[in-house]
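Assemble and predict.
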Amino acid sequence: KQEVTQIPAALSVPEGENLVLNCSFTDSAIYNLQWFRQDPGKGLTSLLLIQSSQREQTSGRLNASLDKSSGRSTLYIAASQPGDSATYLCAVKGGGNKLTFGTGTQLKVEL
Amino acid sequence: DAMVIQNPRYQVTQFGKPVTLSCSQTLNHNVMYWYQQKSSQAPKLLFHYYDKDFNNEADTPDNFQSRRPNTSFCFLDIRSPGLGDAAMYLCATSSDGYEQYFGPGTRLTVT
């Protein structure tokens, strides 16, 4: 059974700092990995999707990497802003159409 | 803009009183999902439709049912809500199980 872990569970950084969020998964037989952002009381916004054959994806200040063999992904956020404050979730897609989610990292970017 | 829409955004129901949550999409995706998310937890997949084929998760209670009358709409029916069913319900869509797009969610309160 796939298990997804995100460390740390919570993170507080000053504005402008570069930061890395970590995601690990137990079964490396995945099709893709997706990073989401969730604001309090809201739905999930897809940030980046990495196919199993890819090593990284970039969108603006966000860069996600994938090391499938070691079961790890990182989300790098450059020059953090208060508007980046949210919970970040990673999810992996294995066989079938099911995503397995981690419990997220709650990020707070302070002025 | 193409999107996933959920109605209502907030729903209050009484213990044991049936309730229906609605999801519609303009993405023309063939796969639609329903997730339950409780506070500070990862989203939990309840079931999904691949085209017209219904796929139930093994641990989804019988109290939860779903209907998909056409490509655009999907409904979540809770036949007899209990206090433990209070949660955020998230609808998502994808094209053939690729990247998932989420709606804003419906917050269900059971009194």
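Chain A has a mean pLDDT of 95.
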